[in-house]
């Protein structure tokens, strides 16, 4: 393994919209390149923030997806938590736009 990458989809209001496609699109080539990828979807994962903190230990990076609207506040909170706990790690926002 080349190292661990954590991909996080923050919580949002309402029912789950489906799989976090943008994170799965990132996970696929990372897995093919022999990275250990952890995808955490807060819409369906109990204690997602705790899991984010636990999985971030030793990770090369933490990627946090965000949609416009209220999800932004949850994403920013997640970034602060990761940065506060792991000052040697970097958090990045990733947003995938799908167009016809």
Q: Could you please describe the fold and organization of this structure?
A:
- By secondary structure, the chain is α/β, with parallel strands linked by helices.
- The protein has one domain.
- The protein has three helices and four strands.
- The longest helix has 15 residues.
- The chain starts with a strand and ends in a 6-residue tail after the last strand.
- The C terminus is likely disordered.
Provide the spatial order of strands within the biggest beta sheet: 2-1-3-4
Determine the strand fraction and express it as a percent band. Answer: 15-25%
Rg calc: 13 Å
Compute the separation of the termini in Å: 36 Å
Q: Give the class from helix and strand content and strand pairing.
A: alpha/beta
The total count of helices amounts to 3
Count of separate structural domains: 1
Low-confidence parts: 96-100
Report the helical percentage.
25-40%
Any idea what the shape is? Answer: globular
How would you sum up the major sheet? 4 strands, parallel
Notable features of this structure?
single chain, 100 residues, alpha/beta, four-stranded parallel β-sheet, 36% helix, disordered C terminus
Brief overview:
The chain has 100 residues and is α/β, with parallel strands linked by helices. 36% of the residues lie in helices and 21% in strands.
Topology (elements, then pairings):
Elements: E1 4-9, H1 21-32, E2 36-41, H2 48-56, E3 61-65, H3 71-85, E4 91-94
Helix pairs in contact: 2-3
């Amino acid at each position: 393994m080349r190292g661990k990458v954590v991909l996080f989809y923050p919580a949002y209001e309402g029912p789950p919209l489906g799989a976090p496609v943008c994170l799965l699109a990132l996970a696929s080539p990372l897995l093919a390149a022999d990275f250990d990828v952890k995808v955490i979807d807060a819409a369906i994962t109990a204690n997602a923030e705790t899991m984010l903190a636990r999985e971030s230990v030793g990770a090369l990076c933490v990627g946090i997806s965000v949609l416009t609207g209220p999800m932004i506040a949850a994403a920013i909170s997640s970034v602060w938590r990761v940065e506060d706990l792991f000052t040697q790690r970097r958090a990045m926002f990733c947003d995938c736009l799908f167009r016809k």
